[in-house]
């Protein structure tokens, strides 16, 4: 009659190691494929203030727009499709909707619209969809995924009409929506924005200087020098300002810095929050590479990019869910000799990262 | 998964306390709660079944659930603590004003009868004392087939350490028999401090022997199927229901008919026996 408490929910961790100079590295596609990024956190050891070129990159991140109570059929509007979806890429995800409770919507840059609906909404909508991969005993969540660039979904087509009628009259789905466009920015979205209550937001940048931080001694050539799980725990602890001292008098945290470790006298932790585009993350990575080319005291920089917990999709448009935690993030360790270690991690209800 | 629900908040006459409990539940992320009126008939004197106070009298402004944009939904529930088979009168008129009907049997025969024949939604498992009877597969499977769920409350475990042992022991023995199906976890909270968040209750379910997915369902999908089961219990095959029109001066506020619940044109509703289909 005893209960097995050793089992923890499944989590997936993919570790990759390569060099930026190697033309076969997949880093650009791995960064591109996580469409909806919520937070980017950077850890620069032996640095007290952000260098000007990194500051410039943070300030040049694209702004994003929040539309309150937007009916989802607006994403099928002919004018919106012509000016925004067919030209460039639109990134849109519903806001303040929980993936395991409510209906969530995501519009991916390749024109795929993904609706994650609960059973009642799916049956009301009446459009073809599949049961979610993460249903347990009963099917209570369904996913409807349509390709808006496909010929069958062209305005006036049968599939388009059916979805439009469904969203307009049968299931009047309205959520708050975060929207961003690359490369057009707000101009291509103006028509849609002007009809509803919208606000423009800049990504929120905050930085924090840490003193006397114990860091693991990371060598670029050896992936096994530091166990990935303990390294990721340490990076997360630093980002969340959790002490890794593990002193006997404190019961709050027993996290420790992985061995072998050194102490750096100061370090800078920067985090940016908002709807961040993969293109901006790319530019940031290039600027970090440039930063590391100069001779530095410490030879590495860590960059962690978190995806939205409540987004219906994670990498490559694969379905994402929340069991007890919906983390989907990757952590990139860049070294001065242009090599990198990449750790991609997801929680239980997710598919394997690329 | 569906929204998180806590289907057992104890009723108190103190309006402020009840309001703060509902506000805490909304803050923690529960989208639906049920206020539980416990009725324990004794042989000595005849008691009347309490009639529920309408929600708008109890709580002025329903708080918005944290992280979503809709206000919390509050239901009424009646729990009858049975020590004799005459305590539960099937099809009594007083039951119609409650959204959910629950029964807490105290003997083996009553448990068997409740699982197989009684027209209830929830069977409560006592957590404050050692189980007076053992669970047998036959009545438990019969209840699962009918769509009746078993409820384990956890706030007694928060209050007292002896109760904690009883709660865990009784819950583990229930899970052994029912294999984690048709179980809901709820607080029987009297104060706001006795409430816990839905993900914490999911973790508590692991202690009771539920698997990860089962424990999460115990707070969400199974609760949804109980609420649907209760709605269809008051209708004929889940399609038609009647409502008394207010003609005399003394008319109670009847619960709205289930068929008119959704604004959408007529949609198929779940069947009576298999509400989670």
What topology does this entry show?
The complex is a heterodimer of chains A (354) and B (277).
Chain A: E1 12-19, H1 27-33, E2 37-45, H2 52-59, E3 64-71, H3 78-85, E4 89-95, E5 104-107, E6 112-118, H4 119-125, E7 130-131, E8 141-147, H5 158-170, E9 174-182, H6 186-193, E10 198-201, E11 204-216, H7 228-239, E12 261-276, H8 278-293, E13 300-307, E14 328-335, E15 339-346
Chain B: E1 5-10, H1 15-28, E2 32-39, H2 55-58, E3 73-82, E4 100-105, H3 108-116, E5 122-124, H4 137-146, E6 149-153, H5 155-159, H6 161-178, E7 183-186, H7 198-207, H8 212-219, H9 221-233
Parallel strand pairs in B: 1-2, 2-3, 3-4, 4-5, 5-6, 6-7
Helix pairs in contact in B: 3-4, 7-8
CATH architect. name of chain B: Alpha-Beta Barrel
Strand/helix succession of chain B = EHEHEEHEHEHHEHHH
Question: How are the strands of the biggest sheet of chain B laid out side by side?
Answer: 1-2-3-4-5-6-7
Rg of chain B (CA only):
18 Å
CATH class of chain B: Alpha Beta
Structural category of chain B is alpha/beta
Strand content of chain B: 15-25%
Helix content of chain A: 10-25%
* Shape label of chain A: globular
Structural class of chain A: alpha+beta
Largest sheet of chain B: 7 strands, parallel
CATH topology of chain B: TIM Barrel
The Cα radius of gyration of chain A reads: 22 Å
Number of domains of chain A: 2
GO molecular function (chain A): ribonuclease MRP activity; ribonuclease P activity
Protein name (chain A): Ribonuclease P/MRP 40 subunit
Pfam families (chain A): Ribonuc_P_40 (PF08584)
GO cellular component, one term (chain A): ribonuclease MRP complex
């Amino acid at each position: 009659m005893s209960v097995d408490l050793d089992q923890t929910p499944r989590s997936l961790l993919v570790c990759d190691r390569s060099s930026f100079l190697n033309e076969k590295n997949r880093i650009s596609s791995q960064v591109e494929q996580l469409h909806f990024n919520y937070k980017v956190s950077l850890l620069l050891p032996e640095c007290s203030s952000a260098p000007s070129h990194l500051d410039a990159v943070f300030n040049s991140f694209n702004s994003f727009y929040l539309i309150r109570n937007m009916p989802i059929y607006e994403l099928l509007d002919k004018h919106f499709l012509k000016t925004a979806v067919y030209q460039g890429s639109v990134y849109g995800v519903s806001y303040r909707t929980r993936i395991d409770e409510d209906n969530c919507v995501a519009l991916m840059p390749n024109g795929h619209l993904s609706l994650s609906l609960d059973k009642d909404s799916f049956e009301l909508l009446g459009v073809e969809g599949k049961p979610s991969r993460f249903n347990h005993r009963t099917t209570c969540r369904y996913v409807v995924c349509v390709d808006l660039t496909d010929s069958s979904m062209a305005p006036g087509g049968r599939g388009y009409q059916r979805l439009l009628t469904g969203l307009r009259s049968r299931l009047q789905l309205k959520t708050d929506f975060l929207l961003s466009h690359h490369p057009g920015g707000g101009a291509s979205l103006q028509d849609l924005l002007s009809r509803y209550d919208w606000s423009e937001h800049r990504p929120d940048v905050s930085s924090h200087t840490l003193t006397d931080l114990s860091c693991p001694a990371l060598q670029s050539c050896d992936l096994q020098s530091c166990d990935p799980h303990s390294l990721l725990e340490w990076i997360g602890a630093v980002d969340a300002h959790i002490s890794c001292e593990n002193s006997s008098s404190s019961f709050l945290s027993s996290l420790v810095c992985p061995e072998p470790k050194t102490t750096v006298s100061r370090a800078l932790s920067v985090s940016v929050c908002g709807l961040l585009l993969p293109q901006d993350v790319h530019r940031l990575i290039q600027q970090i590479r440039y930063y590391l080319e100069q001779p530095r005291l410490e030879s590495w920089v860590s960059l962690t990019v978190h995806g939205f917990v409540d987004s219906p999709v994670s990498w490559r448009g694969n379905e994402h869910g929340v069991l007890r935690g919906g983390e989907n993030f990757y952590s990139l360790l860049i070294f001065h000799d242009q090599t990198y270690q990449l750790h991609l991690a997801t929680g239980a209800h997710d598919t394997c990262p690329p | 998964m569906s929204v998180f629900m806590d289907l057992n908040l104890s009723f108190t006459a103190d309006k402020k306390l009840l309001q703060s409990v509902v506000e805490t539940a909304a803050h923690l992320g529960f989208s639906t709660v049920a206020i539980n009126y416990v009725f324990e008939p004794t042989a000595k004197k005849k008691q009347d079944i309490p009639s529920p106070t309408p929600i708008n009298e109890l709580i002025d402004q329903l708080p918005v659930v944290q992280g979503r944009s809709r206000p919390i939904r509050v239901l009424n529930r009646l729990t009858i603590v049975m020590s004799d088979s005459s305590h539960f009168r099937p099809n009594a008129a007083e039951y119609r004003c409650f959204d959910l009907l629950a029964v807490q049997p105290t003997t083996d025969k009553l448990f068997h009868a409740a699982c197989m024949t009684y027209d209830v939604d929830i069977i409560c498992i006592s957590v404050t004392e050692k189980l007076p009877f053992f669970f047998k597969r036959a009545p438990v499977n019969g209840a699962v087939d009918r769509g009746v769920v078993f409820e384990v409350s956890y706030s007694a475990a928060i209050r007292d350490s002896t109760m904690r042992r009883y709660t865990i022991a009784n819950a583990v023995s229930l899970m052994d028999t029912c294999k984690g199906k048709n179980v809901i976890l709820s607080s029987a909270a009297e104060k706001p401090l006795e409430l816990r968040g839905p993900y914490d209750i999911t973790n508590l379910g692991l202690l009771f022997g539920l698997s990860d997915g089962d424990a999460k369902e115990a707070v969400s999908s199974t609760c949804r199927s109980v609420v649907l089961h209760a709605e269809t219990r008051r209708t004929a095959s889940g399609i038609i229901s009647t409502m008394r029109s207010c003609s005399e001066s003394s008319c109670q506020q009847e619960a709205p008919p289930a068929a008119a619940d959704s604004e959408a044109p007529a949609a198929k509703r779940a069947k009576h026996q298999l509400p989670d289909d």
